[in-house]
Please model this.
Amino acid sequence: MTQFVFFGGFSVMQPDPGLIFWTSVIFILIWFVLGRAAFRPIQNALKKRDSDIQHALDEAKRAREEIGKMQSQNELLLREAQEQRTAILKEAKEIREATIKRAEEEAKAKVKAMLAEAKTDIEHMSLELKTSIKNELGNMALDIAEKLVRKELKSNTENMELAQKLVEEIKFN
Amino acid sequence: MKVSSKPIIRIALTLFISILGFNSAWANEEGHGEEKPGKYDPVGTVMNHISDANEFHVWEGVHIPLPCFLYAPETGWSFFSSGVFEHGHKAVDRYVINHGRVNRIADASFPMGEVHIEGVHGKKEMMLVNGKEKEVEVFYAHHDGKEYKLDKPSTLDGGMMGGGITSFYDFSITKNVFTMMLAALLLIVIFTAVRNGYRKNEGKAPSGIQSFFEPFFVFIRDEVAKPMIGQKHYERYMPFIMTLFFFILFCNLLGLMPFFPGGSNVTGNLGVTMVLAVLVFIVTNVSGNKHYWQHILWMPGVPSFVKVLILTPVEILGLVIKPFSLMIRLFANISAGHIIILSLIGLIFVFGENGTNLGGGIMGAVLGGAFTAFMNLIELLVAFLQAFVFAMLTASYIGAAVEEGHHDHHDETHHAH
Model:
């Protein structure tokens, strides 16, 4: 008995034309309305966002690569600069050393020259001195000789004393 | 003692059921009066609950009338609200309401217009069904001491399921139609908001309702449409797949809601799943390319006699069987879920022996309540799962139809479905 009620009353398995009609109308309506107004725009927006994100990622990757490239370039430049600095310093050192050496040499040469000059001067002066001494001695000898000659004329003793005195005078002079 | 305790138990149990949102077993007796009072008919109650109806039963004694659009070849169109029937006490243009469904008095001697009737009652009668004598419940309306036989609305099962063409057609906004309209409205409101979210947040992260629905959308796109239909064609079918998925999902979820405006067994009705399956059939075969039809009608590389005898008939049958399986799968899963939950609730009345056994009723309530809570969780899973399965199989059928000829290794996977 129950079984018959079950099958007889199982109306969910009896397709109702009204329900079929309304289901078709409602489903086709939302299919077109939502497809046009929501699902397509959403799909396009998602697609656009996906491509935007991909684009942004690619861009970031590219920028990173560029930065990396720039960094390596900078490093190269830095290394070059360092090398240059080292070279400049080395050169400067060399120049300094050379300058010092040259200055030293020049100074030495100058000193040598000055010494030589001084030597010549001294030689000249000593020569001059000798000459003047000789002249002076000659003159003195002449003077003495003159005075001796004049005293001779008075007395021997007196001459002698005079001579002695003159000699002493020479010593003092 | 027994007499006085009975109403109290009834009230307590009715309250409990009202909280759960299911109308009690006595809904059948109330207003129809003809059945034996106090007799709980579990099968009839469950069937009545999963069936479509012309009014919304909110709780004991509270019904929301729905608009009726009825067509009888004899009398033409009739339009009115199902409220005019006064719960089975009035006939309008020979139409009466019987267990929430509009029936018609086929007898031309019954007066037209609004007529008071004493009630509707069912009788078990022997009838010839599919060439066999079977006992069938036939309903009669009482008027002026006479009995008038009631016709159920026409159905398109050709008598195979106990229905058939009768004296009228029911194009009303029934409970199921109402719920579908609600689902459609919800879908349109929600997805318009989601669409606006994409407009507002262009180039920004999603927010609000947009970010709630985006994972579903992306999941169906990336896990269903793209792999099944293929990178080249999937975009064209996205609106169809999405509408199928979300329409089925929303109808399933509304069906799980145990109170107004939910509780309708929409996707558990063969008429609804039939429409969806027929649309899938149409979309699939309209999309079918040369390669697809060649594989169905004249598979290359197979001897002619094999093709004529086995392969082509099987493939042609397959064209129909694929959407047919979609129709049955969704219908059976959702109906079964509703039947199990209603049966578990029915345990209260079975154990309570129609309100005479308080202890049994309480035991039934505890047991039935616990199992119903558990089943509801499973049904929640099923609601998502069946929507997903329907969308995925549809995508795979479309995928097979639009597949290009030169990817032979893909054929095997598609034919396996």
